[in-house]
Every structure is written in C-alpha cells, then in structure tokens.
Amino acid sequence: MRQSSLFNPTEILPNEKDILKHQGIPEEHTPSTRIQNILSEAIILFIGEAKPQWIRAQVSRSEFKAIYLGAGENFIENPLENIYSQASNLALFALTVGLEISNKIENLFQQKEYALAAMLDSVASTAAENAVARCEKLYEESLQETDETATVLAYSPGYCGWHISGQKNLFDYLKPEQIGITINNHFLMTPLKSVSGLLVAGPPKIHLFKNNFDFCRSCTDKSCTERMWKINHPEEKNSEIRRTNGITTADFSQSSAG
Amino acid sequence: MELLLQISASLQQGDDSKVHELTSLALQQGHAPEKILSDGLIAGMDIIGKQFRHHEIFLPDVLMAAKAMNAGLDLLKPLLQESGQIGLGKIVIGTVSGDLHDLGKNLVTIMLKGAGFEVIDLGKDVKPSTFVDTAISENATVIGMSALLTTTMPVMKSVVEILHERGLANSIKTIIGGAPLSDEYAREIGADAYAYDAANAVVKIKELMGV
Ligand code: B1M
Question: Which of A16, A132, A255, B116 has a C-alpha 20 to 30 A away from that of A179?
Fold first, then answer.
C-alpha cells in the first residue's frame, strides 16, 4: 500500500533546546536575548515557509531484500540485514521539509543575515529529524490492529552499513518524485532537507545489535546507542518527539584543537 | 576609546549600524582604509574567532559579528580596490558538483572574509573546470572545496588533476573540507590541505599562503 500526506509544520517543530544544541550551544548555557530573538524569528519563518510532506509504501521482506542488495555496495557485515529479516512489517519512506525553506535559507545568506540563516538551517534540519520520528509513529499507529506490540524504527541509506547508493532502488520502488523529492547521480536528494529510508516494525528486541561493526569506528553520531537505550527503557519512549532515525544533530561548536 | 578600537568593540558586539557609522567617521577623519581594516575590523574578528574557539561565544555571535564586519567592509572595499590592497589573499571556494550542501562552505567563507581574505564564492554544484578557470581568471592562489557526501568527494580529485595537467599545482593550492573528508583523503588525492572546521580553514589557508 502506498500513502502520502502533508505534515503541519508545527507537528514536527523542534524544541528550542534541540535547535540550540544543533547550533553548538550547550544545554547548560542560557542564550543571550539576541540569540533568543533570532531563534524565535527562525521558528516563525519555519512555520511560515516549511511544506513538510511524506510518502510511504509497504514492502514485503523479499521485495526489500532485492532493493537492499540491488545496489551491491553495502558493507557485508551490517546490522540491518538481521533486523529487517525479523520484521513483521516493512515500509519504504521518504520525507521532505520542502524546497521553500532551503530557498529562504539561501536568500538570508545572500542578504548577509548570517545568524538567522544558520539558525533557520538548524530548525529545518532538526525538524527533518523530527519528521522521521513522526513517520515512525504514524506507521506504528497504522499497524495497531494487526501488530499492536510492534516497535517501529527507521533506517536510512548512508547509515549503519547501508550504502548511500541504496537510494537508487529505494527511489525506483517508492517514487518520492510524487511529493517533489528527486535524486541526482550522486544520490543527493532535492530538496536538501529530505530523508529516505526503511521503516522496520517488529518486536522491540529486533532493533538491538552490538555496535562494533567496521563502519561503527568511523561513525561520528552513534545515535544507535540512544535508540537502543530507548528500547531498553520503554517508559521513556513517548517522553518527547526526538530524532531516532540514526541521523545525529550536528554540533557547530569548534573543536578545541586549532 | 580610540576610534579603531571602538570599531573593533562594536564589531564584537555584532552592532552592524555602529560599525558602519564608525567606519565612515574613521574615513572622514583620514584614517587609512588599510588601517581601519586591519586594526578595526580584522582585529575585532580575530578576538571573536579566539573566543569561539575557546567556547566563550557561539555560532550566532560569530555570525552577528561577521555581519557587522561586512557593514564596515562595504565602505572600505571600493577604496581598497583603488589602492590594489584588498586583503591577505584571494580564494575561490565552492561546493563540488553534484552536491548542494552549502552551509559549511558558507561558514568557511564568512570566517575567511572575517580574517581578511578576499573570497570568490562560486556557490554549490560547481564543476571542476569552473574552480580552475575562475582561480586563473581571478588570480586566486587557493581553491577551497566542500563536500558532504562520500559520493561527491571524488570531484575534488578532478580539480587537483586539472591543476596538475595545466602545470598550476604549485601556484594554486587546494584545501578541502566537509563531514566525510579527512587529512588522509587530502593526501590520497594530492590536495594541499584539509580543514575540519571553519576556524581551522583560516589557519590552514594562512599556512598555505604563508601569511
Ligand atoms: C574549503 O575548505 C573547507 C574547510 C572546511 C570545511 C569545508 C571546506 N566545508 C565544510 N567544512 C568544515 O567547516 C564547516 C563549518 O565548521 C563544517 O561544515 P559541515 O557542512 O560539515 O557542517 C555544517 C556546518 C553542519 N553540518 C550539517 O549540517 C550536516 C550534519 C549531519 C548530521 C547531517 C544532517 C544534519 C542532515 N542530514 Co545527513 N547529515 C550528515 C551530517 C553528519 C555530520 N556530522 O556532519 C551526513 C552528511 N548525512 C548523511 C546522509 C547519509 C544523509 N543525510 C540526509 C539528510 C539529512 C537531514 C535532512 C536530516 C539533515 C540536514 C541536511 C543538511 N545538511 O542540510 C540524507 C541526504 C539528504 C539529501 N538531501 O540528499 C541522507 C542520505 C540520509 C537519508 N538516506 O535520507 C551522511 C553522508 C554519508 C555519506 N555516505 O556520504 C552524513 C555524513 C551522516 C553520517 N552518516 O555520518 C566542516 O565540515
């Protein structure tokens, strides 16, 4: 089954703490009034400009196997093969926050409104991550009647050993062009603030794995740790909308070296 | 407070209209544009850069200061161009072809301008030949390339190869940056430097230019 819909920008609006963290401002630091004002302005712009949309298509395990192996560049040892083969339900998804927001960010940079531009970029990136969490939730809810104990987590090409070129087969099957997402020869999606991947539903324990694969060593985000922690602590699961797609928040703070 | 120090202080506060007003006043009072640039604007950005590296201030503070620097620079630029002294050196920068991630490249550009470099920003999705042709036509001595995907970083190698083919690798240096890049990759493709962030890019380019 194929479904697509819009999100209301407020549905995926990040909380201020996460946006500031994305800007490299630590939680314990109280931002100045000026920074707070820039943040408020960026949030208003986001609500006005963002056009978030998503698309999802159910796939069988064998269909996904063909999609997954098709690109042939995945790491031989990876967690996803084991995870999806135990899934009760699978769906490909893609989502975007929209082209307008990227254009707005670009215009602000051109107008030399650098701080506002970078803040809006952080709002949009964090919102894209939240949208993944919303997609997980929506899929979980759609399975309520048949698969009520299933936990849904998203996995994306470019993460956890699934090569970024995997997006080619994903796009061929899902056709996210329907909601305005295209991909180029380098597997870059337009609009920029877009995410693609696989929603995996199944018993919570299938999402647990030892993160000591070859590629884990060079992974800078390690958000799998947080995802697995949440699975092991289900009471925390609904505490707040948080990114859980394996895409980490960026930290703009400078390294102390240099 | 001495006028140039006041410019530096206003810049650090991110007060763009004050920087504009004081720069104009300094020119009226006969301060040399080069002096206003180095002892007012660049001196202020220098302090901002250090505070940022020491986590005393954050990205929005740096970007507000950069906007203030621009307010002063807009007045100085035509005068500096007349005298032929625009800054520390000229850099051509862009995000490589196939890639549209330009936030990192924009931040590097802002920091480089703040440090006193002249930067020609080619934007995103820039072809290898465009980097090289622009560097030649603009007399730039450094090409800076940004990429965020492993699938677009090979474009950087093409730029280095073109420079070698045209015998320009000694006169035009290359620096690369972006999430999947590393010192090791820079060495592998024959790029002259790699920078892990915008502040580090300033340091590395100063080294490349010997300034
Ligand atoms: C010239 O000299 C120089 C010198 C220094 C230079 C330089 C040039 N250029 C940069 N620098 C340096 O200085 C800058 C300032 O300090 C820095 O610039 P950066 O651009 O690196 O930093 C920015 C200021 C802040 N950084 C960022 O904004 C990017 C942060 C990370 C976490 C990231 C984010 C936030 C996002 N992403 Co995604 N994302 C990641 C990133 C991982 C990471 N830790 O960097 C990366 C780039 N993403 C990745 C992936 C896979 C993806 N993402 C995707 C989506 C997203 C979001 C939308 C959720 C979001 C926003 C995207 C955006 N950038 O606008 C997808 C692609 C999107 C698309 N349009 O095609 C998707 C493909 C996932 C999917 N399947 O959907 C990975 C690429 C891996 C690869 N194989 O190439 C990735 C490295 C994460 C990872 N796996 O580790 C330095 O690198």
Answer: A16
> Is the Cβ of B14 closer than 8 Å to some Cβ of chain A?
yes
**A220, A240: one domain:** yes
For chains A and B, CB pairs below 8 A equal 97
Residues 6+ apart with CB under 8 A from A26: A253
CATH number at residue A190: 3.40.109.40
Q: What is the ipTM of this complex?
A: 0.96
Torsion of CA B106, B108, B111, B116, to 10 degrees: -100
- The distance of A143 to chain B (nearest Cα, Å) reads 34
- Tell me, yes or no, whether A90 and A15 share the same domain: yes
| A138 and A234 housed in the same domain | no
Residues B115-141 pLDDT 10s: 999 999 999 999 999 999 999 999 999
Chain A residues whose CB is inside 8 A of the B197 CB are 254-255, 258
- What does the alpha-carbon distance between residue B56 and residue A11 come to, in Å, rounded to a whole number? 34
Q: Are A70 and A188 within one domain? A: yes
Which residues between 65 and 124 in chain A have a beta carbon less than 8 angstroms from any beta carbon of chain B?
Answer: 105-106, 109, 112-115, 117-119, 121
Give yes or no for B197 touching A (CB within 8 A). yes
Last residue of a domain, one of A165, A185, A204: A204
Do residues A46 and A131 both lie within one domain? yes
Q: Which atom of ligand 1 is nearest to the CA of B148?
A: 47
- A188 to B107: CB separation less than 8 angstroms, yes or no: no
Classify residue B37 by its DSSP letter.
I
**Overall size of chain A counted in residues:** 258
Give the range of the structural domain holding residue A59, as residue numbers without chain letter.
2-204
* Bond before A9 cis per omega within 30 degrees: no
Looking at the fold, whether A200 and A216 belong to one and the same domain comes out as no
- Paired sense of beta strands A189-190 and A182-183, if any: antiparallel
The arithmetic mean of pLDDT across residues A179-200, rounded, is 97
What is d(CA A133, CA B96) in angstroms, rounded to the nearest whole number? Answer: 31
> Are residue A89 and residue A114 in the same domain, yes or no?
yes
Mean pLDDT of the A24-28 span? 94
Measured distance CA(B54)–CA(B79) in Å, rounded: 34
Atom number of ligand 1 nearest to Cα A246: 88
Tell whether A127 and A40 lie within a shared domain: yes
